[in-house]
Amino acid sequence: MSQAKTIQEGHLTGWLPRLVENQGPRFLQIADALQAAVADGSLTPGDRLPPQRQLAARLDVDLTTVTRAYDEARRRNLLEGRGARGTYVAAPKVELTSILDLSMNTPPPPAGVDFDDLLKQGLSQVLMRADAELLMTYHLAGGSDSDRKAGATWLAPMFGHLDARQVIVCPGAQAAIAASILALTAPGDIILAEPASYPGLLAAATRFGRRVIAVAADQHGMVPGMLEQACRQHQPALVYLNPTLQNPTAITMPKHRRQELAGIARRCKVRIVEDDPYWLLADAPPPPVATFAPEQVVYISTLSKCLTPGLRVAFVLIRESQERERFLDALRSFALMTAPLTAALATQWILDGSASRLMEGVRNEARLRHRMARTILAGRYSGTGDGLHVWLELPAYWNSAQLARAARSEGIAVTPAQAFATGTESVNAIRISLGSIKDRGRLQAGLQRLSHLLAQRSITPESASSPGTDTTSPP
Which InterPro entries match (predicted)? Predict the structure, then answer.
């Protein structure tokens, strides 16, 4: 073997990792080593990697491990296959968009969790255990018995043991909110909500001809005295609450506040829709409002905020049987059923523990990202260290709509407070979502760019007093 060839082979194998027990799956260790070698220049675009069998022998692992490692590296855009010529280090992927999206509230991809493998295994188990024809036909709304049992298991951390017959399976939380409005209110009815609230509520209420009226909130959420006053004044049909890591303010309502609001709802005979997508992501959250007024509350928990947005499954707890029937009738009017394959995957993941593992990964990744935001945004950060978003109140020289436009011109998408306003007034703030940018490095760059922008004075003097009109409605 010539000296030149020896040098070349040393260059192409010098990145090989020393596989360590208890440091995650071996295929991920190999893929991480590849990524590190590309990042530090040890491997460059066009370098040919060893054949998979040869690499497996060098590392003393089976061929499947190397195949999965190469597949993961391709998913990260590190490698490209050239047929019989072998596998090569890929040229850097050109970003077609420079926008760093801090506007969409989605769970971050968890480190150390092979989502592709989780999905393949879950679907494989579903297809092995279920009749394929049943997965591709119509089902009754509300979910199968097994799906409802999975829902009861999902809700057990909040409520303990539940009768699965009280659980309804829905195609996402937005569908559950819409069905609740149709089932519990009539056209022209009033719905009470906090001054900054989920845009999906506002969209559904407006479309159905209901009015949303704001009830004052403080640092603990909706103010009990103001709710009681609003109930007497407006005779509302419904109260909407998002009490845990509230969207957008990230406030978690304490236990005593939840108890007070539940008591008012009972006295005033008004129903509550408790939209609680972030409870399982929160650090030691109080019991849901529904535990203090079980017959008074429709409780909604979605998987798309804890696991992945594409898993459009929500579980709705309704204790009273006639009310469940009204809810199902309303749901059938616009969403006949949850897609059976999606529901079956959700059930499989919940019952085999995959959902818990994925959620724990999301929770850990979210907390890491909050630490990053706290460091970069310094005194402006007011988050709780968990959940998916941060609510930033702005300095007087910026208003939220104007800052959103300025950020967009800098390649950053954020959500201004106007998108969440239930009344004519809104606070001067923006919501920053920490999960929608997959790569931590790009998230860090976006937060740093935003921090620099916040430190600057607004570009035009008159714009600081202009309310702006950028009121997009993100999830």
Answer: Aminotransferase_I/II_large, HTH_trans_reg/aminotransferase, PyrdxlP-dep_Trfase, PyrdxlP-dep_Trfase_major, Tscrpt_reg_HTH_GntR, WH-like_DNA-bd_sf, WH_DNA-bd_sf
Q: How far is CA 396 from CA 104, 427, 461, in A?
A: 25, 11, 12
Q: How far is CA 73 from CA 28, 57, 80, 87, 359, in A?
A: 9, 19, 9, 11, 24
Render pLDDT for 60-81 as a digit per residue (tens, 0 to 9): 999 999 999 999 898 888 998 8
Residues 6 or more apart from 45 whose CB is under 8 A from it?
A: 88, 89, 90, 91, 92
- Burial (Cβ within 10 Å: 0-12, 13-18, ≥19) of residue 253: buried
Residue of 285, 261, 274 lying closest to 157 (CA atoms)? 285
Enumerate domains of the chain plus CATH numbers: 3-89 (1.10.10.10), 115-354 (3.40.640.10), 355-465 (3.90.1150.10)
What's the rounded Cα separation, in Å, for the pair 290 and 160? 12
Q: For the residues of 415-442, what is the DSSP string, one character each? A: EEGGGGBSSS---SEEEEESSS-SSHHH
Count of alpha carbons within 13 angstroms of residue 223, beta-carbon side:
11
Taking CA atoms, 81 is separated from 84, 302, 307, 380, 407, in Å, by 9, 39, 31, 47, 39
Residue 11: is its pLDDT beyond 90?
Answer: no
